[in-house]
Amino acid sequence: QQNVFREIQYHRELPARSVNTSVFTDRFIAPRVLDSYRDIKEGEYDAFDEAGNEIKVTCGESEPLSAFIFKTVADPFVGKMSYFKVVSGKITSDMTLHNVNTDTQEKLGHIYIVKGKKNIEVKEISCGDIGLVAKLNNTKTGDTLCAPGTFVKLDGIEFLGQGTIYPDIVE
């Protein structure tokens, strides 16, 4: 497993911490998982501009900031915590971001990365990484945060049973 892991890391230039070695137990699944990982890491994301036209957002630190809130949790000690993925640009603590879904400004406090059950405070989170921020007032799951002065609305999450109709399920 270790030799296969080093070989993949060398040829595909994947960071060592990003691949779970348990994937290598099945030789048919491992290539698919790693190809998917590469496509997501280097990929483009579908988004919409202010006029509603479809645009592509590429992952890069030099790109304008856009982040997607994919999970919101209520903690009894901290309050509302929002998990986000930085799609482009980078987020730093004490930034003010624009929520394009609610057309409001959100002031970030401390930002964290999650390792197991621990939240580790960091100063910045780069594109492609997942982070956590507490106490966002007007932001909920599925919202897009972007740099002030820019408008990028990422595809949201469609929840079954909340106004979304799936023709193949409903007869």
Describe the structure.
It is a single chain. This protein is mainly beta and 171 residues long. The protein is built from 2 helices and 13 strands; from the N terminus they run H-H-E-E-E-E-E-E-E-E-E-E-E-E-E. It has helices at residues 2-12, 29-42; strands at 44-48, 54-58, 66-75, 79-88, 90-92, 96-99, 104-107, 111-115, 118-122, 124-126, 130-134, 144-146, 153-154. The chain has an 8-stranded antiparallel β-sheet, with no helix packed on it. It has a 3-stranded antiparallel β-sheet with strand order 2-1-13, with no helix packed on it. A two-stranded antiparallel sheet has the order 5-10. It is globular.
Structure characteristics:
171 residues, mainly beta, eight-stranded antiparallel beta sheet, three-stranded antiparallel beta sheet, 13 strands, globular, disordered C terminus
Number of strands: 13
> If strands are numbered along the chain, what order do they take across the biggest sheet?
7-6-12-3-4-11-8-9
Shape: globular
Alpha plus pi helix count: 2
Structural class: mainly beta
Radius of gyration: 18 Å
Low-confidence stretches: 11-28, 164-171
- Biggest β-sheet: count, sense, barrel? 8 strands, antiparallel
Beta content comes to: 35-45%
Overall pLDDT metric: 75
Q: Level of helix content?
A: 10-25%
> End-to-end span in angstroms?
48 Å
Order of helices and strands: HHEEEEEEEEEEEEE
